[in-house]
Specification:
single chain, mainly alpha, 4 helices, elongated
């Protein structure tokens, strides 16, 4: 079961960012499937930990690109990454305490899914245009 299909995932102007988003999608969908299918608590924990590691790598990758290209909205974008990472870590902590699959499912369906799509369509799209123009010489 997928939370977000590949065709739903917006594309941006910088190919490296699209690759990172695709990789994260596989971790996200694997975690979501574990949540809704009722896999063991240990397996859901493992998949959530893998997803968190990937999110950290994803955000770090984008932040390095932004620093490298002196992206004008670096601080704003970085702060949004920090906010969401802190939120995800809190969700994981609550999950480990409550083991409430419905609460976890609701978070990913009602909060994370709309957030990631909007984030890619707005912040990531602008960032990717900037990075693509500077690193690839692409026209805006």
């Amino acid at each position: 079961m997928e939370l977000i299909s590949e065709r739903e995932l917006p594309l941006v102007a910088y190919p490296g960012m699209n690759q990172v988003h695709q990789k994260e999608l596989s971790y996200l969908n694997s975690l979501y499937s574990s949540i809704v299918s009722g896999e063991s608590l240990e397996e859901t924990d493992r998949k959530f930990e893998e997803f968190l590691r990937d999110v950290k790598e994803h955000f770090s990758y984008e932040e390095e690109l932004m620093e490298k290209t002196h992206f004008f909205a670096y601080q704003c974008h970085k702060e949004e990454h920090e906010r969401v990472l802190k939120e995800l870590e809190g969700v994981f902590k609550r999950w480990r305490e409550s083991r409430n699959r419905e609460e976890l499912r609701d978070y990913f369906e009602k909060v994370f899914k709309p957030w990631i799509k909007e984030h890619i369509l707005t912040m990531d799209a602008v960032t990717a245009q900037w990075i693509s123009r500077l690193l690839l010489g692409a026209l805006p």
